Amino acid sequence: MTGAPALAARGIRRSFPEGFSLRVEDFAVEAGSICGFTGPNGAGKTVLLEILGLVEPPDEGGIELLGRRIFPGPVSREERTALTFVMQRPYLFRGTVAWNVGYGLAARGLAGPERKRRVDACLERFGLGDLAGADVRRLSGGEARWVAIARGCVLEPAVLILDEPDAHLDEPHVEALDGLIRGMRGSTTVLFSTHDPARTRICDHVFALDQGAVQQAR
Fold it and tell me: What pLDDT, on the 0 to 100 scale, is given for residue 164?
């Protein structure tokens, strides 16, 4: 790896009362690459991505984002806006599909015309134009997941983390997601988890988790 990694974890430890413990000695991914995490349910994929996604702090160790040390200590607004984390069970706000996709842009203070331009472009990119005015409460599970991923991508973060993004998606949308992630290579660092090793065919690097331990598989 040349230069500072886009995202790195050093000496991470996270323990839970039921006995599960996540252990990451030294993980790093270079900017613009695609990184996949595989492993069975309960292996620690979500726990790891929540720490890498700045959602939960580790008990020990630190995260480096774009060359800046994070944890221990507060996370700045600049650091949070450089990274977007789409959860495995994302929450959609009451309203339309278009409003949900543009929510993060509005929260960051992006002006109306520019926000609309980016939302419209994202809706077209994700094939959501016909659903722009639809109430999100009427969406299927797969449609809701697709909207949540679009809401993350429209922010154009330096680092995008997706926890089980293919869950509830039908095969055409899984293939479309693969194409979208491939299209980000070189401009956005993408990390995603999956229980299906075949989904990692698009990855530059693959890591396997087993009982909280992380090993590079490719």
Answer: 95
* Domain locations along the chain: 5-216
> pLDDT, tens digit, for every residue of 32-69?
999 999 999 889 999 999 999 999 999 999 999 998 88
Q: Are 152 and 86 in contact (CB under 8 A)?
A: yes
Helix residue spans in 10-111 (DSSP H): 45-52, 77-81, 97-101, 103-107
φ, ψ for residue 171, nearest 5 deg: -60, -40
What secondary structure letter does DSSP report for 136? Answer: G
| Contacts with 9 (C-beta within 8 Å, 6 or more apart), sequence order | 24, 26, 27, 28, 48, 51, 52, 61, 62, 63, 64
CATH number for the domain whose boundaries are 5-216? 3.40.50.300
The answer to whether 19 and 188 have CB atoms below 8 angstroms apart is no
The CA dihedral of 154, 62, 49, 83, to the nearest 10 degrees, is 0
The three-state secondary structure class of 71 is coil
CA–CA gap between residue 11 and residue 80 (Å, rounded)? 21
And the tokens for 210?
């087993």
Write the pLDDT tens digit of every residue in 81-102: 999 999 988 889 999 999 999 9
Q: CB of 14 within 8 A of CB of 22?
A: yes
